[in-house]
Specification:
This protein is mainly alpha-helical and 118 residues long. The chain contains 6 helices and 2 strands; from the N terminus they run αααββααα. It has a two-stranded antiparallel ribbon with strand order 1-2. The longest helix has 28 residues. It is globular, with a radius of gyration of 15 Å.
């Protein structure tokens, strides 16, 4: 799971449907070549590919990448350990993603409220 304290360091995920690899790289703090490598190592990570083999990530992909990043970089898991941990958490992943979406929406709505009060 993503540690809430580390989630604050990453930018909020915009309310878009699809993200390019460059946008995901910026949102997750991971270089594009690392994202392409992780696609090979983590079967859960499979962005849509369209014209010219261009990758388009969805919101759940971005959250999964953040989770992988947290496991590897902050919790010290190996790729194999992170893969095993994620495969065991697939059932709980939906609940976790829902909570992250709700948390982010709440944060964004609070920011909008602050802007409207001005």
């Amino acid at each position: 799971m993503l540690d809430p304290s580390t989630d604050n360091a990453l930018p909020a995920i915009p309310g878009k449907r699809y993200f390019t690899i460059g946008e995901v790289s910026d949102l997750c703090g991971v270089k594009p070549h690392v994202l392409r490598y992780w696609e090979q190592e983590f079967p859960q990570l499979a962005p849509l590919k369209r014209r010219g083999n261009r990758r388009y990530y969805q919101r759940q992909d971005v959250m999964l990448i953040r989770q992988i990043r947290s496991l590897l970089y902050e919790h010290g898991f190996t790729i194999g350990g992170a893969r095993q941990r994620l495969s065991g958490e697939e059932a709980r992943l939906d609940i976790s993603q829902s909570r992250q979406i709700i948390h982010q929406l709440r944060t964004e709505l609070e920011e909008v409220l602050i802007i409207l009060k001005r």
